[in-house]
Amino acid sequence: MAQTTLSVRMDDEVKRKFDAFCAEVGMNASVAVNLFAKTVIREHRIPFEISADPFWSEENQSVLRRSVAQLDAGKGTTHELIEVEDDA
Prior knowledge:
Layout lengths: L11 H13 L4 H15 L14 H15 L16
């Protein structure tokens, strides 16, 4: 079977941790990506749950737009910033 190359851009730290995990379980990143691709093909789905961040839901965006409109109309309440020292 002919081979091809897939280039993927990712954060350096994510790649480092991914490579470390792969090594820990006895494979390399290429094997892991191939396992992922073959599972997607076999199951015709992403093999884990993917969900949207609720922040971007239409309901939440609507609330945020109303809040911004209230602030723009001068109906906001100013609160004093209280800084708390971190003892840790």
